Structures are given as C-alpha cells and as structure tokens.
Amino acid sequence: MQFSIYRYQPESHDEPYMQSFELADDRINDDTMLLGALEMLREQDPTLTFRSSCKEGVCGSDGMNVNGQNVLSCITQVKSLPAPVVIRPMPGLPVIRDLVIDMDLFYRHYESVDPYLQPTQPNQTIDLDHELLQSPQERERLDGSYECILCGCCATSCPSFWWNPDQFHGPAALLAARRFVIDSRDITTRDRLEKLDDVYKTFRCRNIQNCTASCPKGLNPSQAINELKSLMLKKQVD
Questions:
Q1: Which candidate in 36, 63, 173, 189 could, as Cys together with 109 as Cys, close a disulfide (CB 3.0–4.6 Å)?
Q2: Do residues 61 and 53 lie in contact, with contact meaning Cβ atoms separated by under 8 Å?
Q3: What are the tens digits of pLDDT across the range 30-80?
Q4: pLDDT tens digits, residue range 122-162?
Q5: Which superfamily does 2-101 belong to?
Q6: Would you state the pLDDT for residue 206?
C-alpha cells in the first residue's frame, strides 16, 4: 500500500516535502490501524516523527490529517482508506516536526474559558459536608459536552480558527464553555456569557460544521456554539 507523508525536520530541511513510503499488503489486515502502519513505516525511516500514547482513542495525542480529513490514527482502519494514503499534520497550527504540531495556542484558548466548575463566589468557603446535587435531567444536559479529549481535530479543521487563530476560541474551547455555562451547579453563568460575548471569541463561528464532521468522539461543537450564541442573545433581552 502506498503512503505519502509530510516531512519537515527543521535542523536539516528549510522547506517541508512529501515522502513516499510503501507497506507490503501482507502486513495489513482488517485490524491494522493507521497508527500501527506508521509504526511499521518508521522501521524504514526511524526519523519519521508523530505523537501517540494510549492507542485507544482516549488520549487524543495522535490527531493528523489523512486524505484531507482530520482523524485519530489509532482508531482509523488502514483498509478503510483509499490509496495512496496522504498524511499531513493537522492544519492551522505551527508544525514542530513531521506530523507533530504546536498545540500551545489551542490549549491557551481552552484555558481562557475557565473549564472548571465554579460553585461559589471568589474567596467564599465551599461547604465540604454537602454534595452539589443535580437532578437526572440536569445531569443529562451535560451529555455531549464533557467527552471531548482535546485532540484538536475540530479546531484545526475550522476555517474561522485558521483565519483568526489568536482571537477565535475555536470549537473545542467553546464546547467546554457551554458545558459549564449550562451546569446547574455553577453560579457564574452570566459572567461566563459576558466574557464570551465577543465578535471574535464566539461569534466568529460561521456554522460551517467542519468541527462536527471531524470529531472522532461524535460530538457536536457547532450545536454547542449555536446554543451559546442563543444564551447570549437571551441574556441581552433579559
């Protein structure tokens, strides 16, 4: 099977280039994932660089662009891909080396939405003797928001993030923001919405839905962003 892989090694190459590889068909079976194929290809060229960790679609570290679609290589079957398989780093963020990108900006946007529960005012003591209870219906509302593994597949497939990387929070961060905005235990909903109510931070989303199409966990960041926008508009009316 033919592979064409993006290569960039800053210490030896000024410009990136595509390198062709070939993997014998008898080494590929129905259970061979793309990450496994890359590990076999690295036997041919030990300098081939990519990220991986859990190999189970949980850590989110092995996101890459395959035949124009952002995927996790550890849960992508090689036999499901048409040859030649063209593998590039996920777009929109700086490339460090080969298929490894610099995720710092992505994480900074995520951090900026305060992705943690705020059940009390600042400097107020939390009552550790009582649980913060939710009804089953309140808990169910969070489904589809907390399962994100921060792989970056959504943000790096988003044209609005490509065009405004320093200003638009991106789908993963806004999905997390929505998760805490709607949490019945959080008391900072209005403050969160005011912080997000910005022409770039949230409203730069154009509802293209590349984020939803590329999410390996089947989440819907586009819908979450639309819900945030609706809540902001409702807040302005109220």
A1: 173
A2: yes
A3: 999 999 999 999 999 999 999 999 999 999 999 999 999 999 999 999 999
A4: 666 777 777 888 999 999 999 999 999 999 999 999 999 99
A5: Beta-grasp domain (3.10.20.30)
A6: 94
Domain 104-237 has CATH 1.40.20.10: no
Question: Residue 55 has which token pair?
Answer: 């190999």
Domain spans in the chain, listed from the N-terminal domain onward: 2-101, 104-237
